[in-house]
Write a structure and sequence with these properties.
Length: about 525
């Protein structure tokens, strides 16, 4: 294998990162659904032939942390049951226990070949707004098993000999309330992978295989060295943190506990003591748990370290099987991807705050405040709408928190009002910051927001999936907690409080009101 000089290594590293970003641009520009085109609820990455992450775009943390785990699981199935990777193929799957998130997140993988040899994989994951199940949007809060949440697809060919497999696309179409959007979004994911493939092959053509492979090894080794140094700088010690999610009745009894051991440039996370898996959709598969650990470590150590396989060679994660953060099939998992992942990030960050108290902000709002709505127009056309909502960011050691922002495990945008009212029988009647919801302190926590959406016509169901309606987001080092969130239904002029986790039928004129929690304050008001 040829050596690669430092300048060439840097050029190749940045080319790989931008290739991942360009993949995301292709997915966004080709997508049909507003959730991908407008909210950017998708993530892209490149891997080498050994399945090692070599570059990723700055997309959704809960997607990205699970992609390496999911790619290896997917290709293991492809190798053992489907004859292995072949040139001209592309694979699709959404089985959470293989791909690592929830059914809505459809993973598409493209094996990349150069001169007849496998050189890597282009992969992306995108949230499809409806993949069947008992409620529009495929995130029913009353699901007791995976099958209530929608279509489960093991790895299967989506492209064969560079031609889309119509039966695979038809399978998604037949199991969705919005078949046209499913077909369009799958084709957008195909386009994203072709983009990554082109860019990877161009690097091999320009620099030769030996130089590119040597550069990749050096890039991964450099990230490993930098992460070990960053962990070593935190010092050695054992740090424990615990927090709770709220169940459907509003009781904050769902326990997440972690013990972090830092020793000589390594980090070990032990989740012994976390609650058992549930017959409710708050379980998070192991890939989601890894995402929270990887995100929090990156945020607290050195976010300039290139994100790749090398970053997490010094990191070990143990989660007992059969628990909330490593459930056994067929436990339901739709909310684990959004709500449990967010609380897990909180718990890991609070453990890290014990090791580095001046580097970690107070808790943010602690929920993605998911709104899922879907139904039928008077002319019979079906529709499904999904979004997460920003909350108050926790105050930082040197500044206030940010108001109404998507925090931690989501990096998506709001859905523009124009897109909502253009594509759905919905009207946004209120959209503003929830003033006074940020916790007080030397630095104030960010405020949550208020979003009110009215059903204009037809019939519909809504599923609201949120948290921090009972337990306030904690402040840090004497800062006050942020305010809790709140849901309401306005019908015929009367307002009724709704639970944080609820599925309900809507009538024309009904308004769903979502107020998201504020972030905690940092430090006492006077010191």
């Amino acid at each position: 294998m040829k050596n690669a000089d430092p300048i060439t290594v840097e050029v190749i590293q940045n080319a790989l990162v931008y290739a991942s970003e360009e993949m995301g641009i292709a997915v966004r520009n080709s997508a049909y659904s507003p959730n991908i085109k407008e909210r950017l609820d998708h993530s892209c990455a490149l891997f080498d032939a050994r399945g090692r992450l070599i570059a990723q775009a700055e997309h959704i943390p809960v997607h990205l942390g699970s992609l390496p785990w999911g790619l290896k699981q997917t290709m293991r199935v492809v190798t053992s049951e489907c004859g292995g990777a072949r040139e001209g193929d592309m694979w699709v799957a959404n089985d959470p226990y293989i791909t690592g998130t929830h059914l809505n997140d459809v993973t598409v993988v493209r094996p990349v070949f150069f001169a007849g040899a496998l050189i890597g994989f282009a992969a992306n994951k995108a949230h499809h707004t409806d993949v069947g199940g008992s409620a529009p949007g495929s995130m029913p809060v009353d699901a007791v098993d995976l099958f209530a949440e929608g279509l489960v697809v093991p790895p299967m060919r989506l492209v064969e000999c560079d031609e889309p497999v119509a039966t695979a696309i038809d399978l998604f179409r037949a199991n969705s309330r919005t078949p046209q959007a499913r077909a369009g979004d799958l084709r957008a994911q195909i386009a994203g992978n072709y983009t990554g493939e082109r860019r990877l092959i161009e690097l091999f053509e320009r620099y030769t295989a030996g130089v590119v492979l040597a550069a990749i090894d050096r890039i991964l080794a450099d990230s490993e060295t930098r992460m070990r140094n960053a962990l070593r700088a935190l010092g050695d010690g054992v740090f424990e943190s615990t927090d709770f999610l709220e169940d459907r009745q509003g009781s904050p009894t769902i326990r997440i506990a972690v013990k972090l051991t830092l020793r000589d440039g390594t980090a070990s996370f032990d989740y012994t003591g976390t609650g058992a898996q549930m017959s409710a959709p708050l379980n998070a598969v192991f890939g989601v748990t890894l995402s929270g650990v990887h995100y929090a470590l990156r945020a607290v150590t050195d976010p300039t370290i290139p994100m790749n396989d090398g970053c997490f060679r010094p990191v070990d994660v143990f989660v007992p099987e059969g628990t909330l953060l490593n459930p056994r099939r067929p436990a339901p998992v739709s909310g684990g991807n959004v709500e449990t992942s967010t609380r897990n990030a909180d718990v890991v960050l609070q453990a890290l705050a014990l090791a580095a108290p001046n580097r970690v902000p107070a808790c943010s709002g602690g929920t993605m405040s998911n709104v899922v709505m879907g139904g039928t127009r008077p002319d019979g056309r079906a529709w499904t709408f999904y979004e997460t909502n920003g909350c108050g960011m926790g105050a930082r050691p040197t500044s206030d928190g940010i108001d109404g922002i998507q925090c931690h495990m989501t990096n998506s945008s709001n859905t523009p009002i124009e897109a909502i009212e253009r594509d759905f029988p919905l009207r946004v009647t209120r959209y503003e910051f929830a003033e006074g919801t940020g916790g007080a302190g030397r630095h104030r926590g960010g405020n949550g927001l208020v979003r009110a959406i009215q059903l204009v016509e037809g019939s519909a169901q809504a599923s609201l999936l949120a948290d921090r309606h009972v337990l306030q987001p904690p402040g840090a080092l004497g800062g006050a907690p942020g305010a809790c969130g709140h849901h309401a239904l306005i019908r015929n002029g009367y307002e009724t409080e709704l639970a944080a986790k609820v599925t309900l039928a809507l009538e024309p004129g009904d308004v769903i009101v979502v107020q998201t929690p504020g972030g905690g304050g940092y430090g006492p008001l006077s010191s």
